[in-house]
């Protein structure tokens, strides 16, 4: 079977390479024509432009990879059926499921690739691209101020801590004028303020630190304040990654949630601080399941393409192109509809994220069973 598998993979990967390259070339060329004047104003060199598109490419690859794979797979299967190769292969005793094994392995590899791109490259691609655009500009106060996120406030509901930060540096993780209110299990309240705070592997180090403890009950006088120049507070478990996830989620509303790229790590960082059932937590649960379910579209593509492309008979290869367009449109509409219902809290998060994959995979496998 190795010879047959190599043949099927070669006939698939060649059109797949053409499809994926065509999508990337079309996007880069059209975007370059649109942004060329801006690149010239930013005084970017050729290598800067190449690096800019290298950073933005993973975002596009994640979007078009399932479409390119479906288009190539339908083209390959339709071409095999057109020349009666599938009939000959099955007449030799090869089942439809065994024939689809190399396609499934490619789909699994592509799914894992999309999962890795979504986790490590796509979420920060826009910020990294903006840095490339600004690298030729002289440093100034406005540019430096963009490193600071002003007025950051969030609540760690799991440990009953409220944070109020005048400004947070995204690069150095420095905190300006942090203010922390911590309600203890016995009902007492610790109020901690400082001029600065810096993150170390051991925890947060506060500069010009002052702490006041309020005993349980209302109207009680606080104890004498404690002051020191430098203090390490290892018991504050909030990390810079969690603070960054709070900032990113805080800017994201319902409309932006469907477009904003969150990594699984960012969603988990946010959920570690929140144990309530607020609208934001429901939105993050839906986003988490969507990030887990999305990459497996490449495997679902195999189940969808198999019954459409493996039917015997002499057909035009452009039937595969038309089929892929209809299938992609239907899948995209269902996916966006289910995601919107999940973000609104009208469907359970797991159902809104996984339902399109399950429905299309079940339909594809059912049709494949009929023609096996």
Q: Which of globular, elongated, flat, extended, rod-shaped describes the shape? A: elongated
Average pLDDT works out at 86
Would you tell me the structural class of the helices and strands?
alpha+beta
What string gives the helices and strands in order?
A: HHHHHHHEEEEEEEHHHHHHH
- Tell me the total number of β-strands: 7
- Radius of gyration, rounded? 27 Å
Binned strand content: 15-25%
Q: Considering DSSP H and I runs of 4 or more, what fraction of the residues is helical?
A: 55-70%
Number of domains: 2
Q: Ends: how far apart?
A: 19 Å
Describe this protein's structure.
The longest helix is centred in the first third of the chain and has 40 residues, at 2-41. The mean pLDDT is 86. α2 runs parallel beside α12 (297-309). The chain starts with a helix and ends with a helix. It is an alpha+beta fold and 372 residues long. Strands 1, 2, 3, 4, 5, 6 and 7 form a seven-stranded antiparallel β-sheet that branches. It is elongated, with a radius of gyration of 27 Å. The protein has two domains: 2-134 and 291-371, no CATH class; 160-236, no CATH class. It has helices spanning 2-41, 46-82, 85-91, 96-99, 101-120, 125-134, 141-145, 240-251, 254-257, 264-273, 279-293, 297-309, 318-343, 349-371, and strands spanning 148-156, 161-169, 175-183, 189-193, 196-200, 203-214, 226-233.
Per-chain topology:
Blueprint: H1 2-41, H2 46-82, H3 85-91, H4 96-99, H5 101-120, H6 125-134, H7 141-145, E1 148-156, E2 161-169, E3 175-183, E4 189-193, E5 196-200, E6 203-214, E7 226-233, H8 240-251, H9 254-257, H10 264-273, H11 279-293, H12 297-309, H13 318-343, H14 349-371
Antiparallel strand pairs: 1-2, 2-3, 3-4, 3-5, 4-6, 5-6, 6-7
Helix pairs in contact: 1-2, 2-5, 2-6, 2-12, 2-13, 5-12, 8-10, 10-11, 11-14, 12-13, 12-14, 13-14
């Amino acid at each position: 079977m190795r010879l047959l598998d190599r043949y099927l993979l070669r006939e698939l990967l060649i059109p797949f390479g053409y499809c994926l390259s065509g999508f990337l070339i079309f996007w880069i060329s059209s975007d370059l024509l649109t942004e060329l004047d801006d690149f010239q104003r930013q005084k970017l060199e050729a290598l800067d432009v190449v690096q800019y598109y290298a950073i933005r490419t993973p975002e596009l690859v994640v979007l078009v990879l399932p479409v390119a794979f479906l288009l190539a797979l339908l083209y390959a299967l339709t071409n095999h059926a057109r020349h009666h190769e599938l009939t000959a292969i099955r007449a030799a005793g090869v089942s439809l499921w065994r024939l689809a094994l190399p396609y499934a392995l490619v789909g699994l590899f592509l799914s894992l690739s999309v999962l890795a791109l979504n986790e490590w490259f796509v979420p920060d691609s826009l910020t990294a691209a903006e840095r490339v655009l600004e690298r030729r500009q002289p440093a100034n106060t406005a540019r430096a101020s963009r490193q600071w996120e002003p007025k950051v406030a969030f609540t760690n509901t799991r440990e009953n801590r409220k944070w109020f930060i005048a400004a947070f540096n995204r690069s150095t993780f420095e905190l300006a004028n942090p203010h922390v209110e911590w309600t203890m299990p016995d009902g007492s309240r610790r109020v901690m303020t400082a001029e600065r705070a810096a993150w170390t592997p051991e925890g947060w180090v506060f500069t010009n630190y002052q702490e006041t403890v309020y005993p349980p009950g209302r109207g009680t006088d606080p104890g004498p304040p404690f002051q020191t120049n430098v203090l390490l507070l290892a018991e504050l478990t909030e990390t810079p990654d969690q603070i960054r996830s709070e900032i990113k989620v805080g800017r994201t509303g319902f409309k932006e949630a469907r477009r904003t790229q969150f990594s699984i790590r960012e969603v988990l960082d946010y959920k570690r601080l929140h144990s309530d059932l607020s609208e934001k937590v429901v939105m993050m649960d839906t986003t988490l399941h969507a990030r887990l379910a999305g990459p497996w579209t490449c495997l679902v593509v195999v189940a969808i393409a198999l019954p459409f492309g493996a039917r015997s008979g002499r057909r035009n290869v452009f039937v595969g192109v038309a089929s892929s367009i209809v299938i992609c449109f239907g899948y995209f509409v269902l996916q966006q509809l289910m995601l919107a219902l999940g973000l609104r809290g009208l469907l359970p998060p797991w159902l809104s994220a996984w339902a399109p994959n399950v429905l299309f995979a079940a339909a594809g496998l059912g049709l494949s069973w009929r023609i096996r």
